[in-house]
């Protein structure tokens, strides 16, 4: 079938039967990260030209869903969890534990393949950064960000996200 071989065809363009046939033989893994942490990482990597985190967030909000960068678009719009039934969802901050489990399930030696991951240090650092960056935002920006990422917050268990409030 020509459509199945087309390189630029989006998964959403296939009907349910075609998607199921294509994805049925794969183990589907989705890596997710708190949307606020993604914003912080994007800002710190210099992907925005803004001088402050608050002005960067305003750029993100002004760009909206359709014109935004993949670095900060809501995950639900990128990974289509309603279209794809993922076998595993791996949360950033629990990588060592979850990747070890995933490798064992795949029949691979988990210990020798995993890099040294210090999840607890990463979680502490992002908690501190989140507090600092969140305090820079106006009440309106906080409300708009929570609305912008509402589907990610509903789809994934980001219970400790600053945007969950």
From TrEMBL:
PANTHER family: CARBOHYDRATE SULFOTRANSFERASE (PTHR12137:SF64)
Family: Belongs to the sulfotransferase 2 family.
Keywords: Carbohydrate metabolism, Glycoprotein, Golgi apparatus, Membrane, Signal-anchor, Transferase, Transmembrane, Transmembrane helix
The keyword Thylakoid is annotated on this UniProt entry: no
Subcellular location: Golgi apparatus membrane
Designated gene of the protein: Chst8_1
A single cellular component GO annotation: Golgi membrane
Enzyme Commission (EC) number: 2.8.2.-
Glycoprotein is among the record's keywords: yes
GO molecular function annotations of the record: sulfotransferase activity
A Pfam match: Sulfotransfer_2
UniProt superkingdom: Eukaryota
Chain segments annotated as transmembrane: none
Organism of derivation: Pycnonotus jocosus
Class of the enzyme per the UniProt entry, highest EC level: transferase
Topology in the lipid bilayer: Single-pass type II membrane protein
Stated name of the protein: Carbohydrate sulfotransferase
InterPro entries, A to Z: Carb_sulfotrans_8-10, Sulfotransferase
GO biological processes: carbohydrate biosynthetic process; dermatan sulfate proteoglycan metabolic process
């Amino acid at each position: 079938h020509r459509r199945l071989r087309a390189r630029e065809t989006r998964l959403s363009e296939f009907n349910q039967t075609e998607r199921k046939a294509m994805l049925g033989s794969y183990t589907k893994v989705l890596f997710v990260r708190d949307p606020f942490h993604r914003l912080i990482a994007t800002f710190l990597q210099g992907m925005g030209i803004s001088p402050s985190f608050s002005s960067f967030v305003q750029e993100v909000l002004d760009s909206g869903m359709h014109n935004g960068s993949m670095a900060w678009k809501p995950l639900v719009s990128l990974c289509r969890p309603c279209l794809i039934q993922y076998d595993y969802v791996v949360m950033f901050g629990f990588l060592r534990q979850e990747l070890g489990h995933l490798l064992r399930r795949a029949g691979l030696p988990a210990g020798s393949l995993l890099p040294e991951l210090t999840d607890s240090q990463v979680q502490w650092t992002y908690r501190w950064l989140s507090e600092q960056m969140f305090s820079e935002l106006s009440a309106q920006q906080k409300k708009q960000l929570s609305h912008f990422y509402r589907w990610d917050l509903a789809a994934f268990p980001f219970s400790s996200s600053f945007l969950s409030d």
